[in-house]
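ok so for the tutorial part 2 we go from a plain amino acid sequence to predicted structure tokens. step 1 is just haveing the sequence, like this:
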Amino acid sequence: MIRQIAVPPFERLDPFLPKPSVTDAATRDGVAAILADIARRGDAAVRHWTKTLDGVDLAPTDWELPKVEWENAAERLHPELREALETAVQRVTSYHRRQLDPGFTVLEEDGSILGMRVLPLERVGLYVPGGKAAYPSSVIMNAVPAVVAGVEEIIAVTPPAGVTDAVLAACLFAGVTRMYRIGGAQAVGALAFGTATIQRVDKIVGPGNKWVAEAKRQVAGPVGIDMIAGPTEVVIIADSTARADHIAADLIAQAEHDEDAASWLVTTDLELADKVPAALEALLARNPRAAVARASLERNGLIVWVPTVGDAVKVANLRAPEHLEIVTRDPEAVAEGIKHAGAIFLGDTTPEPVGDYIAGPSHVLPTNSTARHASPLGVHDFVRRSSIIQYTRDRLNDDAARIITLAEAEGLFGHAEAVRLRLD
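step 2 — the prediction. this is what the tokens look like for a chain of 424 residues:
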């Protein structure tokens, strides 16, 4: 069911490493047509595409779900689910408060001032998936860092089928300000361009299917986006201390998300590598999403045997995974060698799902090896920074000759003259 290879040579990994994603022409052109229609016709186009693609005809006046419905949904929740959601909000809030950046001001000896002002975005759009399943955790992990950053308005959109009591309660607890029952590329277009009903936002965050991802790609620029998220992925580094059933469970935990999810085990222990396939079969036999998980494991699953932990670290860095579990004798020491990973989970008692739901850091992470340059979603994604510069007369006089020289070297006479006219 799951393929196995041995490295080095590390070139054997090449066929399994992520390739640059290319949107298929049908999706690209289809999304472009929807966005152009939204930009031209606004609410009427959103209604048309919601009826066409989601099979639901809602007038614009019926899109927004009033707060009383969120509150009623929260009251209907099972107490254990409500407590779990509220605890998740508290943990994610506490973690992200540590990311707040106050900016700085530097007073120079001559009285000049240099600084950086950090201000929150004013309005953010949050896409909440609602196709195959509804994800209240996605609401929390996207909205809470924005709230901590100080964003005033967080507008959530979700397909009509994604409106569940858990999602509505998560919006209430996490600090979302408004929610609309629209989804797909049409919802992204409404957030990006604005319509009579939907206010234009400054940034769009949140995962979605390939149509949503492509829509975010196409509107990026006029509005900000968090990232273009690919299928979820995990790499597990394990040695002889790891239990085969625990490793198998963690591989399935990623694989059950989506047929395109990628689950890798990188191990120094041949016996563990031999035991994991049988453990996978035993656990899949009682998993309601076994068909999805099995397809994922057959398509993208991999067991990589390596002779040393150092080689395992090299494999992980080559893969640059969204999630990296380290289940070894000394996971902290192994983690010191990791250069590229979205989130690192240390030890057997820290399976990846703790990060999905309640540990504290946002579970919105770079995928498709973009952990080589990108970071988890955080408060920094919901602020903008302005430079502050205030020169004194003496500082301007001191720097004028250098500024004029550089400006004239670039052929910009007006730049030089703007300084020259101010000299004593």
